[in-house]
Amino acid sequence: MSATRFVIGIAVNIVGAITTNLGTVLMKYHTAVRHGKGHYLAIGLILFCIGSILTFGSFAFAPQSLLSGISAIQFVSNLFFVHYFLKEPFTVFNVCGTVVIIGAIVMLVISSNKSETINNVDVMFRDFYFSATHGYFLLGLLAVILVIAFAFWMRTGAPIFWFSKSKWPKRIQWELSLPRSQGRVTRFLVPTGYTFCVAAVGAQSVVSGKVLSLIITQAFGGHVTQLYQGRT
Q: Which regions form coiled coils (predicted)?
């Protein structure tokens, strides 16, 4: 992989991540601050879509193992966007977290492998999607989600899915108001379980984005059949 493509991939990914985050903040600004007035929702949605497309396109230029870490720059930009639009204050924890993220991104770029050993769609499908290791990973993730869902049901009596007009949201709000839901253990386990599942699913989306970018790249290179194969 040439240095030019490597730099382009990083630059496009950073712009895409920041644009996506700005779009998300504008949509929240439209609801929380403007109370539905103005065109901020439409602008935020457009920016979110543009940022997602840029992030997706960047996977065709650089390794996804690098770009998935670079995308964390959106949390740094989020610190400034929410302060400006939503008037949320800077805190010591926010600043410390931002410093850690910036340091991690710098280390990731410096230590990252500038070449990519897998840049073929067939290899990605054979060695990842259709591999036994990937199957074990998905089964393990499903098991963790089921355990969390069962614990959630045991604690609140509510399922993890419900219709929009349901009694369960009020039931959960009542549960959260109880002293047992304010303990340190609960406040640690609930976010940790959520973060673990989201991180695992997010990792899958990064790899899927890489595969789709390779498919589109090969399609533009003349291999149009990649677009309508069953595995795609």
A: none
SS3 of 135-154? HHHHHHHHHHHHHHHHHHHH
Shared-domain flag, residues 125 and 109: no
Rounded CA separation 121/210 (Å): 9
At 159-203, the pLDDT tens digits run 666 655 667 777 777 777 777 677 777 777 777 777 777 777 777
Q: Is the pTM of this model over 0.70?
A: no
- Whether residues 183 and 155 share a domain: the answer is no
Which CB contacts under 8 angstroms, 24+ apart, belong to 189-197?
A: 193/144, 193/148, 196/144, 197/141, 197/144, 197/145, 197/148
Domain that holds residue 104: 1-116
CA distance 7 to 5: 5
Q: Which of 17, 195, 211, 30 is nearest to 121 (CA)?
A: 211
Query: How many alpha carbons fall within 13 Å on the CB side of residue 200?
Result: 17
- Residue 168 CB-density burial (10 A; 0-12 exposed, 13-18 middle, 19+ buried): middle
